[in-house]
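Dear colleagues,

As part of the handover before I leave the project, I'm documenting each prediction I ran so the next person doesn't have to rerun anything. This entry is a single chain, and its sequence is reproduced below.
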Amino acid sequence: MAVAMDMQKEAKVDNKPPTEQRRVVVTGMGVETSLGHDPDTFYENLLQGNSGISQIENFDCSAFPTRIAGEIKSFSTEGWVAPKLSKRMDKFMLYLLTAGKKALVDGGVTEEVMAEFDKAK
């Protein structure tokens, strides 16, 4: 049995207006990884080919098939997240918040600068 197929398809026209593009400038960096807690250490470990993968130590993983991971070790929120908030947050939230705050500091965005921003935008 032969089946004829129409290979010519009409081009789909997108009637949406083009999205306004804005330039973005990266002014600061912050990291919390298994290879380091600051951009310089992280980058050096990457260049040296160091692996952040090791045996899982933060919890008992004997019930799971995986025994290795890229754990963030010696992590501290001291000076970055209030202790009361730190106790109520998941680790991934603490990593995100700490790295974000480090990026702001690295970029020179101080509390005085933040106070000047129009938060309504």
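Helices lie at 39-47, 83-88, 91-106, 111-116. Residues 4 and 10 are 18 Å apart (CA to CA).

All the best with the project,
I.
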